[in-house]
Automatic annotation (TrEMBL):
Record-level Gene Ontology MF annotations: DNA binding
UniProt GO cellular component terms: DNA-directed RNA polymerase complex; nucleolus
Organism: Taxus chinensis (Chinese yew)
Primary location group: nucleus
Entry's family note: Belongs to the eukaryotic RPA49/POLR1E RNA polymerase subunit family.
Lineage: Eukaryota, Viridiplantae, Streptophyta, Embryophyta, Tracheophyta
BP terms from Gene Ontology: DNA-templated transcription
Protein name in the entry: Uncharacterized protein
Location in the cell: Nucleus, Nucleolus
Record keywords, A-Z: DNA-directed RNA polymerase, Nucleus, Transcription
Domain of life from the UniProt record: Eukaryota
Length: 274
């Protein structure tokens, strides 16, 4: 079991040529001597991906990352801003007024019009997608001290109980209790400040939802502004989700091709001696 655990290569090692020298020790079995190519192939096969749940066998982009794999069934009825979002998308006048609001991220404000032609389940699915993106961004902005206080009250949040000690923090976060409890489990660590891998996972959840909202063909500029990241950095993060990017007339377009393929560790090229 220990050997199997050691054989797992962290996601951070992908694309980092300095890590290739460590691969042999991490993936060698019974002290067998591996060639460089064999070691890298075995390492790639054992990568643990720090991303939302996915279906690697999906034949359509919408089946690779699904809304149901991100928003649990018990969360659907506890999103208080759904009616506000639907109302904002109902008319062009309402959408224009909504775009002036500063308490919603730019990604949502610039896409609220997408709700207008929809009805029934499609309408509610997109509204929930927008709502969840907003919750994730609000959680990302929470101070570490607030997250640690909420971690102590996680049982209260999970049981959806009224606790005066946490009610103010919950109200200021604008995140429903059942969803906030889930975020604390996924994206925080009570022993230290929010670790880098947790922050990366949180960003991955946000980016997957932007793909869903834009039918798996998105311009990363708005969400880059919301995340306070450069577009180039964000493009790299999308690529870790299996996305491809192209730049046309200065504008990036992110798509999710199938079958799903992820970045892999590549062998270092030997320099030719002169």
């Amino acid at each position: 079991a220990k050997r199997r655990e050691k054989s797992k290569l962290k996601e951070e090692a992908l694309g980092d040529q300095t890590e290739i020298g460590k691969v042999y020790g991490e993936v060698a079995i019974n002290s067998a001597v591996l060639t460089n190519a064999e070691a890298i192939a075995r390492a790639n096969a054992n990568v643990i991906r720090n991303i939302p749940p996915y279906n690697a066998l999906a034949t359509k982009p919408e089946n690779v990352y699904t809304l149901e794999s991100i928003i649990r069934s018990e969360e659907w009825d506890w999103q208080p801003d759904i009616d506000e979002l639907i109302a904002a998308g109902r008319t062009s006048h309402a959408s224009h007024a909504f775009q002036q609001k500063s308490d919603y991220p730019q990604f949502i404000r610039n896409r609220i019009y997408k709700l207008r032609p929809l009805s029934g389940e499609q309408l509610y699915r997109l509204a929930h997608t927008f709502s969840y993106i907003n919750h994730l961004l609000n959680f990302k902005r929470m101070p570490v001290i607030a997250i640690k206080r909420l971690l102590k009250a996680r049982t209260t949040l999970e049981n959806d109980e009224d606790d005066k000690g946490t009610s103010h923090l919950m109200e200021s976060s604008r995140i429903p209790g059942v969803t906030l409890a889930k975020f604390l489990k996924l994206f925080s660590d009570s022993k230290e400040d929010v670790p880098r891998e947790k922050k990366d996972l949180l960003n991955s959840y946000i980016l997957v939802l932007t793909l869903i909202a834009d039918d798996f063909e998105t311009d990363p500029l708005d969400i880059a502004n919301d995340l306070k990241m450069t577009v180039n950095d964000l493009v790299s993060h999308y690529q870790e989700l299996g996305c491809k990017s192209e730049k046309l007339k200065g504008i990036f377009k992110i798509t999710l091709p199938v079958p799903l393929t992820f970045p892999t560790l590549q062998p270092k090229r030997m320099r030719k001696r002169t």
